[in-house]
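This follows on from our talk about sequence and fold. Go ahead and set the record down below:
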Amino acid sequence: MNRKFYLLLGFFAFFVLSAEAQFEISAELRPRFEMNNGYAAVPTDQTEPTYFVSQRSRINLGLNKENYRLFVSLQDVRTWGNDNIANSTGVFMNTGSTGLHQVWAEFDVFKNSRIRVGRQEFKYDDQRLLAWRNWNQYAQTYDAFLYSYKRESWQFDVALSYNNDGTGASGVNDFNVDPIERRLRTLNFIYLKNQITDEFSLSMLNLLTGYQKDKTSSTTYLMATQGFFGEYKKNAFTGKFNAYYQYGKSQTGMDVSAYMFTAEVDYKARKLSIGAGIDVLSGQDASNTDADYQQKYHAFDVFYGVRYARYGNMNHYLTPASTLHGGLVDIYPKLAYHFNPKSTFSLQYHFFSLATKVGDPLANNALLEGSLGGELDMIYAHKFAKEIALSVGISVYNTNDTFARIKDVSPSEIETPVWGWVMLTFKPSLFVSSK
C-alpha cells in the first residue's frame, strides 16, 4: 500500500506544480465496535453473541482545476485482529483489505455538462435503487461512465457500465465464477429531475441491469426498472414517495413483473421531529396457481439500493430471498429529539409483514403469510466538531413464528435478536493548496 500511495501522491504533486489548481488531501478513520446477536442472522439457543471491532481507513486526494477534476480515495477495511500476515508475537497486515474505493476523472464538456469516468459513488433521490450504502465499512462504488447535464431547475444524467472479472483480456467475455453469486454484468440508467417549484421536485429513473446467464454463455438477462420519485418540502413538513415497476428478465431468465411503492412524511416542531412511512415491495404469491402467473417472477429487487435504515437497521431483509421471495410490507413510525444542533436521539419502529403468501420451509404443503414481527432501532449521535462525530445504536427484533419459519429456524429454538454498536467518525482535512 505504501508504494502505491507514494506513487499517487507524486502523480498529484506533478499536476499541482505544473498547473494552476487546487489540491486537497483528506482522511477518514471510522472504527466501530459491535455486539452482534442478531444482525443479518437469526440467533438460536445454540448460538452465542459475537464481539468485534471493524475499521474503515481512507486517504483522499482531490485535484480541482477550472475545467477538470481528479479524485482518488484509497481505502483499507479490516476487523481488528484478522491480519493474515502474523506470528505468535505480532500481527502485521492483511493483504486483502486495501484497495481503491474511488478513482475518477471529471471533465467539463459543452455548456452545463460534464462527464465522469472511473470508480465512483452514485446517490440519487432517497437512494432506494442507487445508493452509496455508507453504513457498510466498504461502502458501494460503481465502475462507470457518467454524463451529467444541469441547467436551472433541470438535471439529466446518463450512466453506462460493463463488468468483467479480468478474463476479457484473454478474449473470454464472461465471469470466471457463477455471476448470479457475484455481481451485475451491466448497470445503466437515465435520470431526469425537475425542481418544479421551490417546494416540489419530481424525478424519473430508468434503470437497465443485466446478469450473465452462466459462466460459459454470452447471453445477458436484462431487467428494466422505471418509475418516479417525488419530494415536497415546505417549512417544517416533508413528504416523499417512490413508485417503480420492474420488467424484463430475472437473474435466472424468468419474465419479471414486479413493483415497489413507498410513501413517507416528516414534521419538525422545534426540537422534536415526528414521521411515518410505508414501503411495499411486491412478492411471488405461492398460493396463486395460475399458469401465466407462475411463469413470471413478481418479487421486486432493489439491486444496489440502501437496505440499512430503510428496512430495519439489523439488515434482515436484503434481497427477495430474505422473505422467500414473498415481498415485504414495512410500516414505520419514527421520531427524533434534537437536544441541540450537535446532539440527536432517534427512534424508529418497523412493523414488517409479507406482501404475499410463501411456502413454509418447515412444513410440506403449508403456507406462511402476514406479520413478520417488528424491529426497534435507537440511535444517539453527537458531533464534537466538524470533523469528529460519535454515534451509538441498539436494535431489538420482536420475532414471531412466521419470522422464524421464513428464516428456516424452529420457533421453539429462536432467541430475541439484539445488536448494539458504537462508532467514531474522524474526517480531517490534512492539506489544502490555494489555486
About this structure: The helical segments are 2-18, 291-294, 401-406. The longest strand covers residues 22-37. The chain has a mean pLDDT of 91.
